[in-house]
Amino acid sequence: MKKQDILFIAFLLLAALDLKAQVLPVGTPMLEDYYRRLQLLGKLDSTISFNVRPLSNEALKQENIYDPEGTQVSSNSIHRSADGKGMIQLMPLSWQNQINSNFPYGWNDGGMIPAAGYQTQVAAGIYGEYKFLSIQLRPEFVFAQNSNFQGFEGSDRNWWAKWYRYMNGIDAPERFGTGSYTRFFPGQSSIRLNFHPISIGVSTENLWWGPGIRNSLLMSNNAPGFLHATVNTTRPIQTAIGSFEGQLVAGRLEDSGFPPTPLGNPNHYDDLYTPKPDDWRYFSGLTFSYQPKWLPGLSLGFNTVFTVNSKDMGNKLGDYLPFFSSNSSSPVLDPNDINNIADLGAQDVNVSLFFRWLIPEAQFEIYGEYARNDRSYDLRDLAVQLNHSRSYMFGLRKLFPVQIIDHQDMFEVAFEMTQLEQSKNADIRPTEPMYYHYIVRSGYTNLGQIMGAGIGYGNNVQSLHVNWLRGLKRAGFQLERLVHNNALFYDLIADRRRNWVDLNVGVYGEYDYKNFIFMSKLIFTKAYNYQYQIGESTNLWSFGKKDSGNVHFQVGMLYRF
After folding, report:
1. Residue 138 DSSP label
2. C or N: which end of the chain has fewer Cβ atoms within 10 Å?
3. Chain centroid to CA 324
4. Neighbours of 78 (CB within 10 A)
5. pLDDT of residue 329
6. What pLDDT sits at residue 344?
7. May I ask the CATH class of domain 16-328+341-559?
8. Is the separation of the CB atoms in 168 and 204 below 8 Å?
9. What's 374's DSSP letter?
């Protein structure tokens, strides 16, 4: 490309400049789901797929993304430049608090950790932009009481050997140390150059890829955000064949520094623990979403992510962007290996396909995601054993208008399920569980938490929600069934009475008043066969119950300046 062509393209980008560059952080209470509901009601551009987040006010066409109903009593701008090309704004102050009475519960909470006892997170920040440059600084502070609770208690060395066989391949500690936990994170911060509809920058923001609401298989806000370079769309790119959204990321993942279970207990066989490599991991990921022009509301896409220990990195472009290279360090499959264990190389590779179909006329949406943790040998292998190393997520929801006195309200029914348990195929064709890797031994995690579905390593969940809605306000009921790591259950125990299953029943509410947004949640958990335990038995189904229970209480506040 000639120098004058490059200069001409740069001129066109600058001529198309728009100052709207602020983003709505992933997990912002009430507001993310409110915009998604507006889409179901036909009040928001249907080409926004909600598959690539955070969303920008460029996409949402909102001057102030934190005030979609215009109810704030003051402006969050504290300075605007005389030429009108720059501004400085205060970002909302967020304060989240939660208590787990007996054992950890909850996910998709960023810097918070799975812990018993009291925990709090505070976040606030400032946003500034001038011409094409934007800077967002929104650090987060987390404190967790991190109380002691009963973790895994194997009955003998064989139990612990099998438990460590899983836990030595992922950085997912039961408990983050033996005392209180305090951390400062950069949080939802970024520096960007914005040439809409493209943005280039460096960020520590949480990302969400895929259509899921409760879970996303490969990228969610379950773990703290990680330092990454990003090239992403800021709004759907409209073309003659439809609209496109996407993001390309390269970043750095860190370990938690904690063992799978606190060391020092002679009954826990510490010698079976293999410490994680003293090394950070390189992450590269790509997401792409396409909405055909001829099928409004339908979006299709894929995610692909690579992680590798930094010491195993090469120095070629294909090592940093492996999805664009035909000569990456990914493994070459052995055609003589009847099991075809694909992840024999230094890289951990995960791929997912997803869809979302929005039908505003019916105020209905259906969505799903299908992921694989192991490569197929060829297309024939893919067709014959599609379920090999798979996990999946599926969901739907429907809004029902209802007149209550003089208000036009809505009722919502939503269902979502996520399956991380390995398929039956694993019995004859061994593969690594989702998020696990025996070379990249911290697995698909950042700072000890899974970056995909936050329900837990190898877990399954089915969730039903029924909500009353009025604008930003919401009150709801939740019924949820969470199954803990059946791979470990079948491998370790093989006793049909011992499945560890949680039944979660709860209520929650969200309420906005002027510049405030308040939220609260109360979840009661009945844990059947907690930690796969049962008592003494006289016959097969007459046995002592070793169930447990937990109360999860959450309350929070968002103040919009």
Report:
1. B
2. N
3. 25
4. 12
5. 39
6. 45
7. mainly beta
8. no
9. S
